[in-house]
Every structure is written in structure tokens, then in C-alpha cells.
Amino acid sequence: MDIRWIARSARWLAAALGMAMVASGPALAADRVLKVGVTSGPHAQIFEAAKRVFERDNPGYKIQIIEFNDYIQPNAALDAGELDANSYQHRPFLNAQVKARGYKIYGTGNTMIGPMAIYSKKYRKLADIPAGARIGIPNDPANESRVLLLLQKHGLLKLRAGIDPLTGVNATPIDIVENPKKWKFIEIDAAQLPRTLDDLDASAVNADFAAKAGLNPARDSLVVEGGESPYACVIAVREKDRDQSWLPKLVKAYQSDEVKRFIETEFKGGILAAW
Questions:
Q1: How far is CA 213 from the centre of its chain?
Q2: Which residues, 6 or more positions from 98, have their beta carbon under 8 angstroms from its beta carbon?
């Protein structure tokens, strides 16, 4: 028998056995991908910064950011298990959604405050808006209440006693007990409010939709919420995931100095860090 043939056969057999051992051995662990829902605009931009910090500090994890263009679908997708987390809503909105829709969703980790502000293309001061004016406000309970409370704070209307958005007791126009200028409040989907500025006397616009329309509340509004606003946004997960080991790491990445600097540099007072 040819000795060289035997040697070649032995090498081939050893190689084959080696490949078989690799194939049958444990596979390399794939990165754990967390799907996080955000609304387009500032929430998406800020979470890109948080993603970079999280992936740098947590090898073995990746984040897939999924953008939405309304306030309803991110919670629906989270509750259905299509997302691991979302980052776009303040706690009163989350509380209202849980109450109305029965979601098993938990909010943690303050992220940012997108100040609610009132804008107008017709008037330069809130006091200049005349009697009988039409004012656009969001049609979801939490943000509608937010606008009415802002107007009450500035003495432009009065609401019935007992309104408390943090406990889910929100105000609607029927809760107005004093409206000296007899303003008419037009309830409109929040995403559409920037487009109403050509037609209405004024409109209240959430910061994320304002930013997409080129509006900065610190620069362009007639009146804007201050930093003491209770409407800080949070990271939300399903109740069953509230003890997942990655959740405090995600909050820590968002609440990092790098992300705070990004907010301050990018938005110049139009968005505020909430931690």
C-alpha cells in the first residue's frame, strides 16, 4: 500500500473529524437584539445617541430602533410583544393608555421633557388672541389636559377642582368652568396640529411634532411649559419584563452624560433632559 496515500487519507480524516466537532459543538452566541419603538423626530434622534452608549457599554447586545408616526401604535406593538421597549411617552399618557386599553405596560427611567407649547402665525402674544378664537389642542386625553392646565396656569381659563394627570384624572373642555375669552377648543390628532397653524388662531403642539415642523418652543412659541413640568417621558416595557437585566442598563445608557450633552447641543432648549 502507498505510504503517501495513507498519510493523505489520515490528514483528510483528521480534518473531517475536526469539522464535525466544530459543527456539533456549541454555536457562538448571537447578539441579543432589543427592539425599541420611538416616534420619529427628537425621540428617535435621542435614542440613536443612547443606542451608541448602550452598545458600547454592553457587548453582546444590539438595539434595533423602530420608528412610528403616531402615539397609539408604539404601545400597541409593545403590548403585543413586537417590541421589547418603547421611548416616546410621558407618564400621564402611559397611565391613560393603560387605563383605557388594559395594557400590561410599566414605565421606568425618566428620559426627556418635550415642552408643550402654544404657537400662532397670527399673533405674537398669548394675550393678543381675541375673544372667540379657535385653538387647536391634541385629541388624546393626557395631552389635551396638559394644554388646558398650561392655559389655567397663565390665567386664561379655570378648570373644575380635582384634575390630577398623574393619577389619571385628566381635563377636557367640558371641565372648563371659566373661559373669559370664550375660546373654542378644536380637538385634533397631535401629529396634525402643526398643519393647523395656517387656519386656526393658535394651536398647542407637542415638542416632537413641533421639531419636525421646524418649530422650537423656546424660540417660536407664545407660551411654553417650564422644566418643572410633571410630563417627563419614560422608557416603557411590558410588566413581565420589568425585572429583565438589560432594563437598568438601558436606562443608564439613556441617562448618561453623553446623551445629555447631545440633547443640549442638538435641541438648544427645545428639549430638556429629565434626569
A1: 17
A2: 104, 105
Find where cell 388594559 sits. 102
Bridging pattern class, strands 202-205 and 117-119? antiparallel
Q: Write out pLDDT tens, residues 228-275.
A: 788 999 999 999 999 999 999 999 999 999 999 999 999 988 899 999
Q: What angle do CA 98, 210, 44 make, to 5 degrees?
A: 60
Q: pLDDT by residue (tens digit) across 4-18?
A: 544 455 455 455 445
> How far, in Å, CA of 92 to CA of 230, rounded?
8
Of 56, 106, 113, the C-alpha closest to 84 is 106
Burial letters for 65-78: b for 16+ Cβ neighbours within 10 Å, e otherwise? beebeebebbbbbb
**Inter-helix orientation angle 141-153/91-101, to 10°:** 140
Parallel/antiparallel/unpaired status of strands 134-138 and 184-188: parallel
Burial level of 48, CB count in 10 A (0-12/13-18/19+)?
middle
Cα–Cα separations (whole angstroms), residue 101 to 75, 94, 121, 241 = 10, 10, 36, 19
User: Which amino acid belongs to residue 63?
Assistant: I
3-state secondary structure of 167: helix
Beta strands of the chain (E only): which ranges? 32-39, 61-68, 85-90, 105-110, 112-113, 117-119, 134-138, 158-159, 176-178, 184-188, 202-205, 223-224, 233-238, 272-273
